[in-house]
Amino acid sequence: LLTDKYEKRNDYMVSIYFEYFPTGANISINKDEKVWPASLIKIPVAMAIMKKVQDNKWKLTNELVILDDDKDSEYGDLYKTPTGSTFTIQRFLEESLIDSDNTAHFVLLRNLDGSELEDVYVHLGMDDVIDALKKAPSKIQEVDNRITAKRYSIFFRSLYNATYLDQKHSEIFLSILSKAPRDLVGGGLPQEVPFVHKTGIRVDEAVRADSGIVYVPGRPYLLTVMIQKKGKGELVEEEVNKLFKQIGEEVYTYVTQAR
């Protein structure tokens, strides 16, 4: 049903990865299409930060400072704070993961060694991404890090199964993400069903993405949806939101009504 509806649209390229956690069964639509993950790239950076906390190198209550070079006005409001301002690591993680604040993301990124970020990718079997990262300028979004929906889903699967971070720190991480606004896929889910996710927007590439875990009692699943406008022109917000909502609803119905 999903394949017929979304695989060969004329207006948008829709890439979907669905995985049903109790059995590991999964479905991919347009599985080879690579899309800019945009703000979804904030997840591995935050995972590397949380690993430092887990390894007792840092505490969530330690503070980091905002430098001029960290400031980015595209997303979030932290760029408005005076240079030299300090906030806790917990606050920077929340700003980056919940509000997608670019300044918070760049503060966290600057405080990582390249090897610490590399470790996340190597652990998750994504060694090839590292080559691109090594050639990257200071701001990672400037490098071509396009990825398929299925591959991006590795981060959330790892958090769910606590394979990179331990159980305690995976749970802290997921609880931060649970406070993110329920837009895109979340628009198609009942309010009472927890949805732990991260959205991404890349304006110049006409991309919207949403990836996360839907905690249906006894039937949790992972869903990553990436949508990109075909041809020239900007994507139409209303149309795209409707598409995300529709996919969210359809997958939820499929999972909850399956025998």
Any overview of this molecule?
- This protein is α+β, with helices and mostly antiparallel strands and 259 residues long.
- Helices cover 39% and strands 17% of the residues.
- The longest helix has 21 residues, at 237-257.
In short:
It contains nine helices and seven strands, in the order H-E-E-H-E-E-H-H-H-H-H-H-E-E-E-H. It has helices spanning about 1-5, 40-55, 90-100, 100-110, 115-125, 125-135, 150-160, 165-175, 235-255, and strands at about 10-20, 25-30, 65, 85-90, 195-200, 205-215, 220-230.
Annotation keywords:
259 residues; alpha+beta; five-stranded antiparallel beta sheet; two-stranded antiparallel ribbon; 9 helices; 7 strands
The average pLDDT value, as a whole number, equals 89
Strand content: 15-25%
* Total count of helical runs of at least 4 residues: 9
Main sheet summary: 5 strands, antiparallel
Report the helical percentage: 25-40%
